[in-house]
Amino acid sequence: MKFRLNTISAFQIYQLVRYSTLVLVGIVLAKSMLTQEAIGEYETFLFLAGAVSFFWLNGLLKALLPLSADGKESRSALFTSFVLISLFGLLSGVFLYLIHPLFSNHLLNGREVPELHLLVIYLVFGVPANMVEYVYLIRKKNRQIVVYAIVSFFVQFLLIVVPVIAGYSVVWALRGLVVSGLLRYIWLWGMFVYYSEISFSYSFFKAHIRLGTPLVAASFLSGSAQFVDGFIVTSRFDESTFAVFRYGARELPLATLLANALNSAMLPVFAVREKLTENLQRLKGSISRLMHFLFPLTAILLLVSHPVFPIVFNPAFKESATIFNIYLLLVISRLLMPQTILNGLRHTNEILIASVLELLLNVLLSLLFVQIWGIAGIAFATFIAYLFEKIYLIMVVRRKLNIRLADYHPVMNYTYYSLGVIAFFIFAEIIY
Fold it and tell me: Which domain holds residue 155?
């Protein structure tokens, strides 16, 4: 059967290449002469960059996708969104620079923010550069998405690991990361020049803010859980323990990347309300295909993670395997996608409410479970909170839109797979 590259598969390949690069960088750093504390510094840099930018970047990009689907002001929409996202990047950099003592004193257990000036540069230029793949996605440049992923992340990988392999300190790895962000930023400007889209629309700017505001808030509340988890670790443990937590707290890469890519690619589709029934079936079929691949892969990883982690990274990261196994269970919630329907049909307030509930539950359970199971308890809290959010949104879709779960989800097979994965998790943790 001939593989056909479409917007969904192209975006999934992009996300897969991105995450593969992240994992490979982690392996090289763990195998290098860097200490566990130095690796923790690198992870803290990435963690802080994500903590102050993930919510507005995700929210604004999610709002851009359905807005761009109607074709209005197409020449000015992308550049206008870039201006808005760049403004948020600048504000984030200034914000972090002004309050970094607060992070050091209260959230990093007295440690300094690593390479503050590099971090500010990365926020101002590197984070807005994440818009590149979305420009390609909106323009349906599927082949270009794949080429861009391979080229950009290969360059990023080299810029980060070559200095470390050569014996330089972790600071040079961070400099390489920032340079790769600057190169993406230049690439984005080249795209605007190529597509002749350097024009600003105030009306689109307002529309983007109006639709994006609840999504930014929802992303902050929903995504904050993982960063709250991280700050609980950094405030209670040292950088070595934080490195152990971060190396384990990565979910199943393919589950996160492929599910998120499917969600992003389906948002413009659901904006066309006349094809709702057809799109529900398309979403159901896509979830089914992912499910038959991701659940068996999860089961295999549950069985091999404990012996493999010390080999792939180093023995100091042995405890990361348990954290990783708990995060593998998130595949159960990732393959529930009621938020795709709500977001595509612009019912964003309901997503916001669900995110508030999820964050509250996650924080409460994290503070409770960390007393019982340590950093593993924080991971358990995340699993429970994420699953609760999806169940809540499923109920919202049923009540507000009269769409049953079975209309867009393969319920029976999903149930069997979920129970099987939980059984494999229990077995793996018992034998190891």
Answer: 7-431
